[in-house]
């Protein structure tokens, strides 16, 4: 299980999240790849993820559909260029003014892993920085892929994070019998 010494394991954080899990990648504006380059790098690293490659990386502000292991996934995507004051507040180096925000359901494995993998690969190919505010950590480009593979591995066999957004239930009574 992936964790930071002295901190709660990431999988435990995700288990108790009710809505979304947010990440950001900070990079130089000139290094932003095309969606096709991004997808090529995802495949090169061996991740079972396909992102929609038919979008403008600077114009999209909304849902980016993906498939993780052949199952529907995706995340909210937003591109922004931050000023020096915003970078200072976020404690991000001024050399990385471009911020890509990822927001995914913390209850759907395919969405969560789509965001984690996409963010890590983007950081790696742009020599950027992944920031995880829930965990209070950041992952530099050279370590981002290892982080994503560790996260992915820890979620492969965990049944508490449902697939396709369906929350597991311990109830023995079907939902329709509660009416």
Features:
single chain, 179 residues, alpha+beta, seven-stranded antiparallel beta sheet, disordered N terminus, disordered C terminus
Name the poorly predicted regions. 1-5, 162-179
Q: Describe the largest sheet.
A: 7 strands, antiparallel
* Percent of residues in helices: 25-40%
Basic shape: globular
Enumerate the strands of the largest sheet in spatial order, edge to edge or round the barrel.
Answer: 2-3-4-5-1-6-7
Number of E-state strands: 7
* SS field, number of helical segments: 5
* Average pLDDT number: 83
The helix-strand sequence is HEHEEEHEHEEH
- Strand residue percentage: 25-35%
**N-to-C CA distance:** 40 Å
Radius of gyration: 17 Å
Strand-pairing-aware structural class: alpha+beta
Q: In the residues, how many domains can be counted?
A: 1
Describe this structure in words.
- It is a single chain.
- With 179 residues, the protein is of the alpha+beta class.
- It has one domain.
- The protein contains 5 helices and 7 strands, in the order αβαβββαβαββα.
- It has helices spanning 10-16, 35-44, 84-90, 109-126, 141-156, and strands at 20-27, 49-51, 61-68, 71-81, 98-105, 129-132, 137-140.
- Strands 2-3-4-5-1-6-7 form a 7-stranded antiparallel β-sheet.
- Strand 6 (129-132) and strand 7 (137-140) form a beta hairpin.
- Helix 4 (109-126) packs antiparallel against helix 5.
- It is globular, with a radius of gyration of 17 Å.
- Mean pLDDT is 83; it is low at 1-5 and 162-179.
């Amino acid at each position: 299980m992936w964790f930071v010494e002295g901190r709660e394991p990431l999988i435990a954080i995700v288990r108790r999240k009710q809505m979304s899990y947010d990440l950001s990648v900070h990079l130089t504006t000139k290094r932003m790849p095309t969606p096709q380059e991004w997808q090529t790098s995802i495949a090169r690293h061996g991740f079972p993820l396909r992102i929609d490659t038919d979008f403008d990386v600077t114009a999209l502000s909304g849902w980016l559909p993906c498939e993780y292991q052949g199952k529907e996934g995706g995340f909210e995507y937003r591109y922004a260029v931050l000023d020096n004051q915003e970078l200072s507040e976020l404690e991000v180096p001024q050399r990385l003014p471009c911020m890509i925000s990822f927001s995914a359901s913390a209850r759907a494995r395919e969405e969560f892993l789509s965001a984690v993998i996409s963010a890590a690969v983007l950081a790696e190919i742009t020599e950027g920085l992944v920031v995880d505010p829930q965990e209070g950590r950041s992952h530099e480009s050279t370590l981002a892929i290892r982080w994503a593979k560790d996260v992915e591995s820890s979620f492969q066999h965990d049944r508490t994070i449902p697939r396709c957004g369906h929350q597991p239930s311990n109830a023995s009574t079907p939902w329709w019998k509660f009416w």
